[in-house]
Amino acid sequence: MVSYNVLVMGGDETGYHDFKVLGPVFEGFLTAAGFSITLSEDPDLFLPENIKIFDVIVCYMNKTKITKKQEQGLLQSIIGSPWGSTGRPKGFVGIHIACCSFEESQAYHKMLGCRLLAHPKMGERYRFKINNPRHPVVAGLKDFSLIEELYLLELYPPFETLMTCDFQGFTRPITWIKPYGMGRVFYTSLGHSTEQLTNEYFQKMVINAVNWSAAER
What's the domain range around 28? Predict the structure, then answer.
């Protein structure tokens, strides 16, 4: 397995997802998978001179503001233009609250594929269904149940849906992948807190997503 250099960006201004508690969970299982991990809550690491050393950005961040330079550095690093200043194309792995970040950045949410609209009260158990079990991101996973904070999302397709959940008569996309320029983007709305982040299916999928998003193109 290739040892990719992974930036895990966190921080939640609402206080619901404490990165001081949850950041080490990401660090633990991603380090055990063989990756080199940097934890940070500083979006200045999105600037070109800082982000170019990383292969993948794992985003577990809910921050309201992003500067134009930070936004451009992040997006251009994924696009990976050969004439750019951010190095080879980065993989982007968005987790749960990543869809709440940078409210005023339409470009960020179009890159990700969604933004949060609402969610039912936390504490219900839901059934999550794998759409394409042959895809490397969900390889080895089967349908599973998990207590989760079910995000109801405004979607910005196209993307390839890998996992869904049935809720109130609709099949809701939960996890997907998409290209963005020369880069690869993954998003899952799973990952509310410690119980979800320590789930074996969740961890396997995120590890797979890091490897898939960083793969040489």
Answer: 5-214
